[in-house]
Design a protein that fits this description.
- This protein has helices at about 1-30, 60-65, 65-75, 105-115, 135-145, 160-170, 200-210, 220-235, 245-255, 265-275, 305-315, 320-325, 335-345, 360-380; strands at about 50-55, 80-85, 100-105, 125-135, 150, 155-160, 265, 285-290, 295-305, 355.
- The protein is an alpha/beta fold.
- The longest helix has about 30 residues, at about 1-30.
- Residues about 1-45 and about 385 have low confidence and may be disordered.
Length: about 375
């Protein structure tokens, strides 16, 4: 009798195992099956989720790969696979039309993609402020010279108009009055990415062109001819430049003040780093500076398929995804929620960014970039590396 019971139990276990194997195999096949636009309707079950692919600015890659984000996507029928690309290079990304979406940083980059692909819509689920990552000794030196001002005992305001005067004059760090903390023979510059490839450098161009154009947005060929000769040296003097903002920010973290005294980055990069790095593992001299004026970068998703559109809509409207984006340092539609999350982690950031300019239209920004590119080519400037 005992042998019969044992035999029966083994049969039941075998059948259960076979059934489970069939279920998970079917789920894997469903998750790997590509969907290029045929899906519609409400959220699908996990067994029916489809893979969607796209390219994104490197500053959002960690967010998209976050297990919590992937879990929400799975609940809504998606398995998202994103590859990094320079925001300004996405419009010429190989076989872009075979992707479900492109997710550049910045409205100008998104507009270029829409123009090149004839895409009809876009979504802006969150945005980031363009800021300067620096160091307390540098910030204090600039404060003594009337170019920076500390706020709330943590972050600084950076007077871009005054700093621009120094940069246009070709001032070197060793020439700054009272400089005993960084007396090097390097030009006073803000390090950026390659303006031909990266949105963060293009946003820096938008900001500096406004200042060089007598506090007015560049909107004519006359304006372009006026500002390009003044601004090209801000890029040419930097030497080698990365194509992705992850590059200079990594240099800032790993090489310190000697390599990168002032670096143009996204606010979200700095906040995300602080959130995931224990205080004991950080350099205590790291400090964030908010340019005045500054410019916002709108992280804009351009869908090419119905699935891509559903993904963009979900990012922009789902409360849980919005909360996770804020955890990664992105500013979201709910400003109070963003502040609550940052303060809950002991991070102090401005509640309101008031002195903000709009970037030039896509056409005029491109004209300025082409002008700077010609200057780079005439001097044999490095083409940089795409990351």
């Amino acid at each position: 009798m005992t042998r019969k019971l044992v035999g029966l139990a083994l049969v039941v276990l075998l059948l259960t195992g076979v059934g489970s194997g069939i279920y998970f195999s079917g789920a894997d096949e469903a998750s790997s099956a590509p969907d290029k636009g045929a899906v519609s309707g409400e959220a699908q079950t996990m067994a029916e989720k489809v893979q969607i692919t796209g390219v994104t600015g490197s500053e959002k890659l960690v967010f998209l790969q976050d297990a919590k984000v992937q879990n929400v996507m799975g609940k809504n029928g998606f398995q998202v696979v994103a590859k990094p690309a320079g925001s300004r290079e996405m419009a010429v990304y190989p076989k872009l039309n075979e992707q479900d979406f492109a997710f550049p940083a910045g409205a100008p980059g998104a507009n270029r993609i829409k123009k090149e692909t004839n895409a009809g819509q876009d979504f802006t689920p969150f945005y980031s402020v363009m800021v300067v990552a620096s160091w307390k000794p540098i910030a204090q030196l600039l404060e003594k010279n009337g170019i920076a001002k500390q706020k709330n005992g943590t972050w600084y305001l950076l007077d871009m108009q005054k700093l621009m005067v120094w940069m246009k004059e070709g001032k070197r760090w060793k020439d700054i009055p009272g400089n005993t903390v960084y007396p090097v023979n390097k030009s006073v510059l803000i390090s950026t990415t390659d303006v031909r490839k990266s949105n963060s450098a293009a946003m820096y161009l938008a900001l500096t062109s406004f200042l060089a154009n007598d506090n007015d947005i560049v909107a004519s060929e006359k304006d372009v001819q006026k500002v390009v000769p003044l601004l090209a040296p801000l890029y040419l003097k930097q030497g080698y430049q990365e194509a992705s903002t992850a590059g200079p920010f990594d240099d800032y973290i790993t090489m310190g003040m000697g390599k990168a005294p002032l670096v143009m980055i996204y606010e979200a990069q700095f906040l995300e780093y602080l959130a995931k790095t224990p205080p004991a593992a950080r350099n205590p001299d790291m400090v964030l500076m908010y340019p005045t004026p500054t410019v916002f970068t709108k992280h804009t998703l351009v869908p090419f398929t119905e699935s891509g559109a559903r993904f963009g809509r979900l990012l922009a409207t789902d409360p849980e995804l919005q909360r996770i984006a804020a955890e990664h340092g992105m500013r979201i539609n709910n400003a109070a929620e963003f502040q609550k999350i940052q303060k809950g982690r002991g991070l102090d950031v401005p509640e309101n960014i008031l002195d903000v300019i709009d970037p030039p239209s896509y056409e005029w920004l491109e004209r300025m970039i082409k002008g700077i590119e010609r200057n780079m080519q005439s001097t044999g400037h490095s083409k940089g590396r795409t990351t």
